[in-house]
């Protein structure tokens, strides 16, 4: 975009842009674990030099930070959208569907988020954002209990964890090129969470 | 126990037996990731020399193998016990309750199992054992569908994954010294999985 030099706006070697570096970084973190992945692993997988890598990102930590922002930002946006619905029922439905959509659309980034151990400030800050998200969702569940939409004999926190246990398990087996339709999956998870596996009489 | 020498039968330094080495090893693997944990990390945490560590175990891999056997052995035993029940309903109930019991009783080992990435032969073999377990449980779900106990419009494999998504999420938040009773937790997960969160009319 800089007409004076004619250089492309993306930095670094041709064939790799910043998005590639982040995508490959997240892939490696998910394969080996973040702590076990070195900058040398990143350059080897990308087939670039260290200095080419540093054209795109400042550090391994920055790749982690960007990926976690994509995961958490998606979940937070879905929650904001859900909170805009007029009834507790619609809000609960919207957050389940929205979270499943974010998981299937940003699978590698959410996988990374769910496997965090909290071994650095970036990880601890991400876990804290995730806790705030869970806390707000627990509020939605509690509200649904107060309106008689969800059984009141369950602890709202445990219920939230069980719903998100189902949702989050999707990262373990869902594949974008697999046979399961992500829209249907959202509806199935919602049905199982709300109505259970047994046929209703 | 050997009267001739007076040495205790457990090997290595006093204050650490083999069970301690395995317990601390699993703890470190869960904190840092298996790949990122070195033998030096193990000896530092235990406060023993490398040679003292090798009194107890042959290798880092052996600690992993023993822990995965405890997790998978527990789940397989629970499945065998469940298969002995006379009805599909009782079999499904028994495997959900049994799996929750194994998770809460062998939390660190199951946590390790669930975070495996398949980066070594030991990990691949454990993942294959886990797949066989899942396959047999999917058969139980399919059987329950055939008897009208579980909705037939859900794919049995997806239903099994969602149930175990709930069960396995327990490793993320259950703490043995926390307020949640493990027996009640099994019943709650079973209730949510089978009857859902909505009150039945």
TrEMBL record, chains A, B:
Transmembrane segments: none annotated. Residues 15-75 form the HTH tetR-type domain. SUPFAM superfamilies: Homeodomain-like, Tetracyclin repressor-like, C-terminal domain. Coiled coil: none annotated. Residues 38-57 bind DNA. Signal peptide: none annotated. The keyword Oxidoreductase does not apply. It comes from the Bacteria. This is TetR/AcrR family transcriptional regulator. The keyword Transcription applies. It holds the Pfam family TetR_N. PANTHER family: HTH-TYPE TRANSCRIPTIONAL REGULATOR BETI (PTHR30055:SF234), HTH-TYPE TRANSCRIPTIONAL REGULATOR RUTR (PTHR30055). It comes from Microbacterium commune. Keywords: DNA-binding, Transcription, Transcription regulation.
